[in-house]
Amino acid sequence: MPRTTPRRSSRNAPRKPAAAAGRVPAYRLHKASGQAVTTLDGRDHYLGRHGSPESREKYSRLIAEWVAHGRTLPSPGEDQPSISVNELLLAYLRFAESYYRDRDGQPSEKELGHLRAALRPLRELYGLTPAADFGPLKLKTVRERFVAAGRTRTHVNKTVQRIRRVFAWAVENELCPASVCHALQAVKHLERGRSDAREGEPVRPVPDHFVDATLPHVAPEVAAMVELQRLTGMRSGEVTIMRTGDIDATGKVWCYTPSVHKTEHHGHERQIRLGPKAQEVLRPWLRMDLTEYLFSPARARERRFVELRSRRKTRVQPSQRNRRKARPRKLPGERWTTNSYYAAVQRGIATANRLRRERGEDEIPDWHPHQLRHSAATAMRKEYGLEVAKAVLGHRSLAVTQVYAEMDATRARDAAGKIG
After folding, report:
1. pLDDT tens per residue, range 246-256
2. In order of start, what are the domains of the chain with their CATH numbers?
3. Among residues 221, 236, 220, 231, which one has the least CA distance to residue 254?
4. Residue 262 has what DSSP assignment?
5. How far is CA 148 from CA 145, 157, 201, in A?
6. Which residues of the chain have pLDDT under 70?
7. What angle do CA 300, 304, 305 make, to 5 degrees?
8. Which residue among 5, 6, 206, 343 sits deepest, i.e. has the most Cβ atoms within 10 Å of its Cβ?
């Protein structure tokens, strides 16, 4: 029986674009003109005489640019792709998640958190604005949002620098004109006494009796971290990520090498020495699993449940044997963060002050873990000198150590008394 419908030629069937199929578009011959051609974003790009070295080179360059820009190219006649600030921020955050990583290959939540906080007002104010139209006045408007929120002058300057970094990356990847990045450099840093931004108070050492009055009212893990900071001068972010595998306990003085530290991107190595007192604090927390964090909120929570159950005097009812929420909004992490560590210390201070008020005693002034680093630096400088304090704190410059280590006022007063 003869066919009533014509056979459809495979030659005339619509071809699925190579880009849509996830493949690199092919280098092809355009028979009518004899030129080489490739199809990108639904458009044909003619490359010159088919088979010539020039056409091959042009094809390779075009494909490399297409891949580098996320498998897309600018529209015809445009020097730069027209993208919004929101699209630019989304692209940069994808880059940042792969760029800011620790030695274990995990995203650096601290830097990514700072970055998201810096970009939030930018997205709220100018998210739909073309990135090519973002200029100095708009950047200053974003800056004023942080000033009005009560951020310190140094914090505002760091935030503005992060925003500049986003647009510098965009220029590097040809996502916006170079003129945008150049114009943003004209926005100067806020200077002391010449802006409405408040000045931050210098961080001072915390007296030992304030710390001693707080320790009984914090979890044992938090107390151990506080003592280690007070003895060694390590940063809060270094004590919260301690693992047994990062500690060399072969010598009389142990050596702790943090997996992440502040200056590792400069190629510096950070080593923290742990003497007998620090070892005594640390020893109960060492783990058999070398990759497990020493201080864990999750383990602290489980131990607290066990202690509460052991102190219970009445019979446990069947309905109370497991009172954990089926789907809790947030579970304790495997390690403390600098924020949760700070919050735990603040809760301890609040508890101590409540009890002191009931007894009619003076309250403990507010303090935070970073002050412990300043306390250790001041004590080391007083006892062993500035060079030793510099080495213990891991600084590359004595000028930085001087910021942390306050001068001993007693020595200065004695010297003034002798000199007259």
Report:
1. 898 888 888 88
2. 28-68 (no CATH), 85-184 (1.10.150), 208-310+332-404 (1.10.443.10)
3. 231
4. T
5. 5, 14, 18
6. 1-22, 69-70, 73-82, 102-108, 260-269, 306, 308, 316-332, 383-420
7. 120
8. 206
Q: Output the six-digit token pair for 190.
A: 């806020």
Residue 251: exposure state from Cβ atoms within 10 A (0-12, 13-18, ≥19) = exposed
319-328 pLDDT per residue, tens: 666 656 556 6
Tell me how far apart the alpha carbons of residues 377 and 364 are, in angstroms, rounded to a whole number. Answer: 22
For the chain, give me the number of helices (H) and strands (E)? 16, 6
Q: How far is residue 406 CA from its own chain's centroid?
A: 29
What whole-number distance in Å separates Cα of residue 321 and Cα of residue 344?
27
Residue with tokens 């990514």, as numbered in its chain: 112
| pLDDT for the residue 318 | 66
Residues 314-319: contacts with CB under 8 Å, at least 24 apart: none
Show the tokens assigned to 315: 């019979």
- Tell me how far apart the alpha carbons of residues 296 and 285 are, in angstroms, rounded to a whole number: 10
Site of tokens 């809790």: 328
pLDDT for res 370: 87
pLDDT of residue 58: 84
